[in-house]
Specification:
- This protein has 89 residues and is mostly helical.
- It is built from three helices and no strands.
- Helix content is 76%, strand content 0%.
- α1 packs across α3 and α2 crosses α3.
- It is globular and about 40 Å long.
Length: 89
């Protein structure tokens, strides 16, 4: 699999914005810029696996990908907080 430089920049940008949005919504302690990118990309993976099975489609384009990834990152952060924080949201 080959990812161009522009494709990699888009993935990093979407991951950064989605991770930042998820961190603001969940109100965590923050993970820094690298942590936000990782959480955003992992959230995109969670959303891409979960949403098609539920029949949820948000459309196409960069904004929908950011929203899609942010929702996945929020789900991921809530699960991490549930496991690490003793069950409190």
């Amino acid at each position: 699999m080959y990812i161009s430089n522009e494709g990699l920049l888009v993935i990093l940008f979407v991951g950064l914005v989605a991770g930042w949005l998820a961190g603001k919504i969940v109100r965590g302690a923050g993970f820094g810029i690298v942590g936000d990118i990782v959480i955003g990309i992992a959230g995109a993976l969670v959303a891409s696996l979960l949403f098609p099975k539920l029949g949820i489609r948000l459309g196409t384009g960069l904004v929908s990908e950011i929203i899609y990834s942010a929702i996945g990152a929020i789900i991921l952060l809530l699960v991490v907080r549930l496991v690490r924080g003793g069950g409190r949201f």
